[in-house]
UniProtKB/TrEMBL annotation:
Gene3D superfamilies, per database record: 2.40.128.20
Protein origin, superkingdom: Eukaryota
Protein name, as recorded: Apolipoprotein D
PANTHER family: APOLIPOPROTEIN D (PTHR10612)
Species assigned in the record: Anabas testudineus
Organism phylogeny: Eukaryota, Metazoa, Chordata, Craniata, Vertebrata
GO terms for cellular component: cytoplasm; extracellular region
Residue span, Lipocalin/cytosolic fatty-acid binding domain: 34-174
Length: 184
């Protein structure tokens, strides 16, 4: 039962990338994470896996709804059209506030959304990993910025955080954030 649900949920993700053997890595997360300071607008600077047919100008706007839950509105421009998707985020364990769960539909379980590191005002390093029967795992990773572009040095430091936590980001690619303000 659990098995088939996991497969239905995970199969579309697997198609998008090569799964990694073994269970999820267990990265360190942002100490004393402050959810309120994290709220507001973040732009996608880079992401894993590389998906070439995706939209551009991807950004997310987080709004606090309670002390431990948030509204998540992500948007992208695909084929000249602005598309929005709304979700709910929660802190699942108050002892680990940097480990959020986000769901974009009430029929889907919360997916991990872990803030590995952030200074709240420039950059955030985010990781999501799902174990499949502890045999392999499927992961996503993002570098987010408060601005549409970040200095190379900042991106390099963010990438190192993944690497230092045994997260394979060789296939991470920059997100397209050019010409966005004109279209919006
Ligand atoms: C983010 O969401 C809040 C609350 O819904 C809204 O007031 C604000 O204008 C939004 N900001 C952006 C950049 O969309």
């Amino acid at each position: 039962m659990k098995f088939s649900i996991a497969l239905v949920f995970v199969l579309p993700l697997i198609k998008a990338q090569v799964p990694h053997w073994g269970p999820c890595p267990e990265p360190a997360v942002q100490p004393a994470f402050n959810l309120k300071q994290f709220m507001g607008r973040w732009f996608e600077i880079a992401r894993l896996p590389a998906q070439f047919e995706k939209g551009q100008c991807i950004e997310t706007n987080f709004t606090l709804t309670t002390d431990s839950s948030i509204r998540v509105v992500s948007s992208e421009i695909l084929n000249g059209e602005l598309r929005k998707i709304e979700g709910i985020g929660v802190i699942e364990d108050m002892k680990n506030p940097a480990k959020l769960g986000i769901s974009y539909s009430y029929v889907l379980p919360y997916s991990p959304y872990w803030i590995l590191s952030t200074d709240y005002v420039n950059v955030a390093v985010v990781y999501s990993c799902t174990d499949v029967l502890r045999l392999f795992h499927v992961d996503f990773a993002w570098i987010l910025g408060r601005t549409r572009t970040l200095p190379d040095a900042t991106i390099m430091k963010a990438t190192e955080i993944f690497v230092n936590n045994n997260i394979d980001v060789l296939r991470m690619r920059p997100s397209k954030q050019q010409g966005c303000d004109k279209t919006l």
